């Protein structure tokens, strides 16, 4: 059974950068599409960036476009989220999630209901 563990979170000043990592184990990772989601206090969980199993297709939601980049290395069972030009409104708990269903990344990013396996989440705080 697939298991996901996030790392790389922390505190950063506005305008700074962070790279989140998601390490997978327990299954053949290239068969899983992956999404990064986030949830701020009092708000619903929302999609940030998603990637197909091969890495050939990606999708970004509006608040991520132009600032965040999702990538994966299936040989290492890793997915990354490079976050640049961070804003205070990016403060949230970030989750890595995956599904083996054959959804396009744009659909995965549209709702948490399309993901089956979730990591425990990691905090990102953007503050001066």
Describe the structure.
The chain is mainly beta and 128 residues long. The protein has one helix and eleven strands, in the order βββββββββαββ. It has one helix at residues 105-110; strands at residues 3-7, 10-12, 18-25, 33-39, 46-51, 58-60, 68-73, 78-83, 92-99, 117-118, 122-126. The strands form two sheets. Strands 2, 4, 5, 6, 9, 10 and 11 form a seven-stranded mixed sheet that branches. A hairpin with a 4-residue loop joins β7 (68-73) and β8 (78-83).
- Give a count of the beta strands, DSSP E runs of length 2 or more: 11
Q: What structural class results from the helix and strand content?
A: mainly beta
Overall form: globular
Q: What's the helical proportion of residues?
A: under 10%
Determine the N-to-C terminus distance.
40 Å
In N-to-C order, the SSE pattern is EEEEEEEEEHEE
Q: Give the overall average pLDDT.
A: 96
Global Rg: 13 Å
Strand content: over 45%
Instruction: Please give the count of helices.
Output: 1
Largest sheet: 7 strands, mixed
Contiguous low-pLDDT stretches (5 residues minimum) are none
């Amino acid at each position: 059974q697939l298991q996901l563990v996030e790392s790389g979170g922390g505190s950063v000043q506005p305008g700074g950068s962070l790279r989140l990592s998601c390490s997978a184990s327990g299954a053949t990772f290239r068969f899983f599409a992956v999404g990064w989601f986030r949830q701020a206090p009092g708000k619903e969980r929302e999609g940030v960036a998603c990637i197909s199993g091969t890495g050939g297709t990606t999708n970004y939601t509006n608040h991520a476009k132009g600032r965040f980049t999702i990538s994966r290395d299936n040989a290492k069972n890793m997915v990354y989220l490079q976050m640049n030009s961070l804003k205070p409104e990016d403060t949230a708990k970030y989750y890595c999630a995956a599904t083996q269903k054959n959804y396009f990344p744009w659909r995965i990013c549209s709702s948490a209901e399309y993901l089956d396996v979730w990591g425990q989440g990691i905090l990102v705080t953007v503050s001066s």
